[in-house]
Amino acid sequence: MVEVIGSVLAFVVALLVGGLAIYLSARVVAGVDSYERAVVTALLGALAWAVTAWVPLIGSLLALLAWVWVIKWRYPGGWTDAAIIGLGAWLAALVILFALSTVLQIDVGAFGVPGA
What we know:
It is a single chain. By secondary structure, the protein is an all-alpha fold. The protein has helices spanning about 1-30, 35-50, 60-75, 80-105. Helix 1 (about 1-30) packs across helix 2 (about 35-50), helix 1 (about 1-30) packs across helix 4 (about 80-105) and helix 3 (about 60-75) crosses helix 4 (about 80-105). The chain is globular. The two termini are about 30 Å apart.
């Protein structure tokens, strides 16, 4: 039971970190000030990634396009803005994860932000 609680807690923290990274980037690029929207976007983006990443040879590229498409769908702007939000979210996630790791000694991921 403790393992289940730990896994759920790790998932929630990683989702909140991924949501924070998307929130910070989307606020700067698209001017959208909604953390809830960012967390839902992180969850949907992670699902889109999981559904497409298994495709042989082009899975990673297809998954990245699906993730950027989710951002495009959830935020105003076109593909370029969505890609910039995605890049900004990835960079923000790296900074957040570095801070959590070094300052608080917490080792988690950023659910919903690929590669972070």
